[in-house]
Amino acid sequence: MAYINEPTGRLCDWGIHRAECWGVRLPSDYAGEVPCQMSMVDVPESEYIAFEHGPFNYEQENCSVEEKIEKAMAGFDYEEAGCSLDTSTGRAMYFFTIRNSMSSI
Predict the structure, then answer these.
(1) Which DSSP letter does residue 51 get?
(2) Is the model's pTM score more than 0.70?
């Protein structure tokens, strides 16, 4: 699951407008068909911070997991870590599950 920064999207709890999106990872040279309701998006090569959570039941726990992730991201000291939160239009916030995670938020 991911969110894309989008000025017309819903306002999340800490002030960023975003639109929910779903997709799959494909090779950079993928030339196959793309369903009409989907679009191809290139994710720029860079170093990224990952806010992770353990496995959860999406239908039952998504709201609470999303809230915990948002709180962790809002309270994180990006400057101290030597990075910044990119809120420009089109940038993605990607949420994923790490299998066998030793800890969770």
Answers:
(1) -
(2) no
Beta bridge partners of 101: none
Question: How is residue 33 written in tokens?
Answer: 């068909």
Q: Measuring CA to CA, how many Å separate 7 from each of 53, 61, 65, 67, 86?
A: 27, 27, 24, 21, 14
Sign of CA dihedral 74, 5, 59, 22: negative
Per residue in 1-58, pLDDT tens?
688 899 999 888 778 898 888 778 889 899 999 999 888 888 777 788 878 777 888 7
Nearest CA among 98, 102, 99 for reference residue 51 = 98
> Where are the chain's structural domains?
2-94
